[in-house]
Amino acid sequence: MLLYLSLIYTTYTHCAVSCCSENSVEGVFDEQTFCVDYDKFGRMTQHDLKPNGQAIPVTDENKKEYVHLYMQWRFRVGVEKQFMALQKGFQELIPPHLLKQFDEKELELIVSGLGSVDVDDWRNNTRLKNCSLDTDVIKWFWKVAATILVHWPSVHCVHTIQCVCY
């Protein structure tokens, strides 16, 4: 999981730094300093991204440093408690020593499955309430589902199933 968070952090930081490099912060970050305000259990709190951060304005010269420090805080400190709770719950289900043999792609496959959808299997294993397979809306749904599978990448189909089923 830490590797997954690290990949997200690296990707977002790279995108933010690229955007920041191509654009001036003048007029955008006029009052921004190396300090962030955030809600902590209903109370606004400040956090200095570096010592004396409240007194250091973000400029074109230091904007990359600001982005790196902000992203680091946001991904590592800003969600640490939530991540630790998620990790603890996950580890209650699956002991960490059993996960060490898998890389992030293999773990995703174990947790999420293949990501491909067999519409016939889906239809045959669907329980309907207050309608039947002969209901027009249900017929239309399966027709659209079959069409989507032909034209959309599998990941979109899996997201569609998640939205419909839950």
Account of the 3D structure:
The structure is a single chain. The relative contact order is 0.08. A two-stranded antiparallel ribbon has the order 1-2. The protein starts with a helix and ends with a helix. By secondary structure, the protein is mainly alpha-helical. It is elongated, with a radius of gyration of 23 Å. The model has no long low-confidence stretch (mean pLDDT 75). The protein has helices at 2-22, 63-77, 80-93, 96-99, 104-112, 119-124, 136-151, 154-165; strands at 35-40, 43-48. It has two domains: 2-78, 2-Layer Sandwich (Hect, E3 ligase catalytic domain), CATH 3.30.2160.10; 119-165, no CATH class. The chain is built from eight helices and two strands, in the order αββααααααα.
Given the helix and strand composition, which structural class is it?
Answer: mainly alpha
Q: How many strand elements?
A: 2
**Any idea how many domains?**
2
Rg, nearest Å = 23 Å
| The CATH class of the largest domain | Alpha Beta
Number of helices: 8
CATH homology-level superfamily of the largest domain: Hect, E3 ligase catalytic domain
CATH architectural group of the largest domain: 2-Layer Sandwich
What are the secondary-structure elements, in order, as H or E?
HEEHHHHHHH
**Biggest sheet details:** 2 strands, antiparallel
Strand portion, in percent? 5-15%
**What is the arithmetic mean of pLDDT?**
75
Q: Quote the distance from N terminus to C terminus.
A: 25 Å
List the main descriptive attributes of the protein structure presented here.
elongated, mainly alpha, single chain, two-stranded antiparallel sheet, 166 residues, Hect, E3 ligase catalytic domain, 2 domains
